[in-house]
Amino acid sequence: MNKRSIALIPLLAAAALQPGLCFAQDYPARPVKIIVPAQPGGGLDLIGRTIGGELGRVLGQSFIVENIGGGGGSIAAMAAARAAPDGYTLMVGYVGTHGTNPAVRKLPYDAIKDFTPIAMVGGTPNVLVLNPSVPAADLRTFVDYAKQNPGKLNWATGGVGLLNHLALEQFRAAAGLDAVYAHYRGIGPAITDLLGGRTHVLMPGLAAALPHIRAGKIRPIAVTGLKRHALLPDVPTFEESGYPGFVGVQWYGIVGPARLPAGITKRLNAEINRALGSPALHQRLSGEAIEPMPMAPEEFGRFIQADIARWSALARERHISLDD
């Protein structure tokens, strides 16, 4: 063995220990599928197509969206979890598949162990809105009115165990309020009945509520998150109104199957974060009330774990389970 061969041994050993980094240099060599856990249209589809378009442009390969609805996202999640961990099947993971669903039901997948966190994309806060017939202009007067008029308000959700339901339960517990719930099959019908005055209280994502807020048909009185939202600068956060801990958001990210090569994960994360920093993409997402939230893969993984823990604790406390 000559001196040159001996010198190459450490380099070859290092490459053997990090095969994903070598593989990532040639990735992607064929079209990549992005599973969206919903039918076409809406926020999930927007994220999948927007991020797919950005990745396709910079990586020179097609990123094709496949919409798989049903099962509250579990069918899509199972398809992604069972895919080969080669970077050619990705998924839009969001607060439903990787936050609230694991908190309120038994799932055929493990939201942490069966996936590789790749990149957080962004989130939109929940906003507590009232039918204009409710005589309350802010959170304090609303709580006072609700306590003085028990049973007179109808509270709506887009479905048991969804984020808009759990966020309302968090508020009810903090404020010590009783509620009569109407659970709908989706946030759309819930908003329709709020507009019609059949219900009085709802806590949807800002993206869904914004057109009706702008039209003056519903009244926003508080938003979740650490700061006021740029699209609703006059609406205080829950914390400003005396209710700390309301940091939950309707978030969206990109995940892959477990054991995705580190090189591919890092490359996708870098390109997605770079895209999120562009003014054009920032403006497009902000127009849908989605604020970019770039994170490293490890940070995104910790975020998912914390979100599941937060909603699991609330679900246990409030006895919310879809398995009962």
Global shape: globular
- How many domain modules? 2
Number of helices: 12
Q: Strands of the largest sheet, in order across it? A: 2-1-3-10-4-11
What would you call the structural class? alpha/beta
Give the N-to-C terminal Cα separation: 69 Å
Helix fraction bin: 40-55%
User: Mean pLDDT, as a whole number?
Assistant: 92
Name the poorly predicted regions: none
Report on the structure:
This protein is of the alpha/beta class and 324 residues long. It has two domains: 19-123 and 250-318, Bordetella uptake gene, domain 1 (D-Maltodextrin-Binding Protein, domain 2); 127-223, Periplasmic binding protein-like II (D-Maltodextrin-Binding Protein, domain 2). The protein has twelve helices and eleven strands. The protein has helices at 3-17, 19-25, 43-59, 74-81, 95-104, 139-148, 163-175, 187-195, 206-214, 262-276, 279-286, 297-318; strands spanning 32-36, 63-67, 89-94, 115-125, 127-130, 154-157, 180-183, 201-202, 219-223, 249-257, 291-292. It has a six-stranded mixed beta sheet with strand order 2-1-3-10-4-11, with helices on both faces. α7 (163-175) crosses α12 (297-318). The chain is globular, with a radius of gyration of 22 Å. The chain starts with a helix and ends in a 6-residue tail after the last helix. The mean pLDDT is 92.
